[in-house]
Amino acid sequence: MNDMILDVRDIVVGFPVLRGFLKKMVGTVHAVDGVSFTLARGRTLGLVGESGCGKTTVGNAIIRLVDTDAGQIVFHARDGERFAVETLTDRNLRRFRSRVQMVFQDPYNSLNPRWTIGATLEAGLKIHSELDADRRRERIATLLHDVGLGPDFIERYPHELSGGQRQRVGIARALSVDPELIICDESVSALDVSVQAQIIHLLKELQAKYQLAYIFISHDLAVVEYLSDEIAVMYLGRIVEHGDAETIIRHPAHPYTRQLLEAVPVAKVQAKRERALIRGEVPSPIDPPSGCRFHPRCPHAMAVCAIETPPLVEGTDGAGNRRITACHFPLPIDGAEFRSDTIAIQSPNENEPSS
């Protein structure tokens, strides 16, 4: 893939479980266990799954907020430079992070309450650019305009802003160093629905303007469907299904993916659908099940599912779209759409003020 920006290969991340006064290690949380994917420049990968599936840890590993125990993460910069993330020294790590940025879930706690918005945006410019004070001020004004905020926000503090406005500042901060990839970690989950729509549309506009690549981490399939070109579904540290977003939504092959979709509330009052909610609790990542990790909760599980780990197998849906699925008994793809009631993110009212 000539336009590939990110190549993640078989990464493993574990966290020690410590107990007692002496903090003795008694186990390991298997947060990420052999995750692989690639991402092309200018595209969005939606990483979806229940809480605790490891999706946030994948994002943190890509930007080196946590270290991997195994595997490889390679970032291909626009200028041809190649970064092997797990081997970066401090100096090279700083250069890498000017190309890869993160937008966090909590727009308030991710901002320094003692800094004005102008100071927050200027901090990254001082570290990652050689702009003088006048050009930094010009750049800050441009960033605020790009995210739908006026120049008067420069002197405001985070507590004076709404949740949506704070998240716009978080996006502006990520854009300040001219990144090529932005990791959005549940970046709209703390906002109400109308503000979510505004932020999602803003992300789409910025992607088109700056040719950004996104990794969008979320448990909300409505958001993931609207924003993503591809979707990877994670369960207990592993990817169980990955493919074109429309293919995954319309023709789910893995029972877990299908049950995630079944659990989404239907917006249309007249729509009728039998909802098969996922049974049981997520097993402990300290001692995950043998074989297929989803088998204790899967309605289609057979004896082999508890013994053998299903490999990721490439296949196609009824329209010939590529997808990979890790399941001994994938659901049949007969060309019929699973969902006729589209999950829709409504366009924000252009007359409404930015929130």
Features:
single chain, 355 residues, alpha/beta, eight-stranded mixed beta sheet, 12 strands
Overall description:
This protein is 26% helix and 24% strand. The chain is α/β, with parallel strands linked by helices and 355 residues long. It has an eight-stranded mixed beta sheet, with helices on both faces. Strands 2-1-4-5 form a four-stranded antiparallel beta sheet. The longest helix is centred in the middle third of the chain and has 18 residues, at 193-210. It starts with a strand and ends in a 30-residue tail after the last strand.
Q: What is the radius of gyration computed over CA atoms, rounded to a whole number of angstroms?
A: 21 Å
Global outline:
globular
Q: What class, by secondary structure content?
A: alpha/beta
Task: Report the sheet with the most strands, covering strand number, pairing sense and barrel closure.
Answer: 8 strands, mixed
Total beta strands = 12
Summarize the helix and strand pattern as letters: EEEHEEHEHHHEHEHEEHHEE
Q: What is the strand content?
A: 15-25%
List the helices and strands and how they pair.
Blueprint: E1 4-19, E2 24-40, E3 44-48, H1 55-62, E4 70-76, E5 82-84, H2 90-97, E6 100-103, H3 117-128, H4 133-146, H5 163-175, E7 181-185, H6 193-210, E8 213-218, H7 221-227, E9 230-235, E10 238-244, H8 245-250, H9 255-262, E11 313-316, E12 322-325
Parallel strand pairs: 3-8, 3-9, 6-7, 7-8
Antiparallel strand pairs: 1-2, 1-4, 4-5, 9-10, 10-12, 11-12
